[in-house]
Amino acid sequence: MRLRTWLGFLAPVAALGAAVAPLAPRTVERWFSAGVYLRLQPVVTGASNRVPVALFDALAVGVGALAVWWLVVAPLRARPGRRLRVWLASVGKAAVAAAVLYLWFLALWGLNYRRVPMTERLEVRPGPAPAGQVEALARQAVAMVNATHGPAHAQGWGVEPWRNAALRRAFAQTQRLLVDGPPAEPGRLKPTLFGPYFRWTGVDGMVAPFALEVLANPDLLPFERPFVAAHEWAHLAGFADESEANFVGWLTCVRGDAPARYSGWLFLYWQLAGDVRPSVARELAAALEPGPKRDVAAISERLRRGQLPTLRRASWAVYDEYLKANHVEAGVRSYGLVVTLLVQTRFRGDWEPVRRTARNE
């Protein structure tokens, strides 16, 4: 059997096996997430950071063009009696290509979905967050947003997050609190051909796993960018779960400079305002000072102006299925579980989470 035939058979089999393989989270954590991955990621992201455009765009255009050629153009160019045969052969090629892409995704980043969850990494009280504690955290968020608004706006957001030395140090410090391994490399927020799609669906950013680079919504406001960057950096550090990326991103921002702290607390206010009783949400909104109120209104206007509701619902439904297929049982609800992590995790001073040890596991 020829080599190409063998590869055409082995790639789908290997992809299917990798998708259903019962890998133990601690094995993935030790050998991949805190091992091979954290040694590979700085090299890959460091290289992609040098390219100002999104490498993912080139890959997406190439894959799309190849799919159109295989599944549409090649059958139409074939003789009438051979069209079905050519189309079936093209379907086989597409299946092999999809299998290779899936294996690439898993090997470079996707296995992080199967690592030890944050609730087993830290001392986290079981169960949902008590409503009273959530409301107390929400009031603290309002106070901190009001307190950090002035210094943040005075300093400004002239430095891109990936070049911000204070935010980079904060990211490295946060990683040391959570993982025994080398630090991940922060990624630059890149423009992308998918910018309009991000705008229409309300997506702030994403990590493109095939080159470990960060793609950003072009409409992000300056005071949103530090938290969005820190959230995506958490993904680059191997925290694939959305609630964990929010958690790591927020811990990074509160360790950063004034603009980063404001961005982090503003995110938390936004998150908590949707998790408390309506009467408490109105109280929180009334307690915001004029500056933060203008910023919250600007975010609301950005989202309202850009989104296409039907496309947004469809997109998030697909993403929900994607997350569940990658062992995130909560699906898109995992975004909001950051509140439970922040309330139920045991912290020392200065928001330092307490790690589990062999004795208290």
Number of discrete helical segments:
15
End-to-end Cα distance, whole Å, is: 52 Å
Q: Please tally the β strands and state the result.
A: 5
Indicate the low-confidence ranges by residue numbers: 330-335
Mean of all residue-level pLDDT scores: 89
Question: Helicity level, as a percent range?
Answer: 55-70%
Biggest beta sheet attributes: 3 strands, mixed
Sketch the topology as an H/E string, one letter per element: HHHHHHHEHEEHHHHHHHEE
**Rough outline:** globular
* Amount of beta strand: under 5%
Going by helix content, strand content and strand pairing, the class is mainly alpha
Question: How do the strands line up in the largest sheet?
Answer: 1-3-2
What radius of gyration results from the CA coordinates? 22 Å
Notes on the protein architecture:
With about 350 residues, this protein is mainly alpha-helical. It has 15 helices and five strands. The protein has helices at about 5-20, 25-50, 55-75, 85-110, 120, 130-155, 165-180, 195-200, 225-235, 240-255, 260-275, 280-285, 290-305, 310-325, 340-345; strands at about 190, 205-210, 215, 345-350, 350-355. The strands form two sheets. It has a three-stranded mixed sheet with strand order 1-3-2. A hairpin with a 3-residue loop joins strand 4 and strand 5 (about 350-355). Helix 1 crosses helix 4, helix 7 crosses helix 10 (about 240-255) and helix 10 (about 240-255) packs across helix 15 (about 340-345). The termini are far apart. Mean pLDDT is about 90; it is low at about 330-335.
List keywords for this structure.
361 residues; mainly alpha; 3-stranded mixed beta sheet; two-stranded antiparallel ribbon; 15 helices; 5 strands; 4% strand; globular
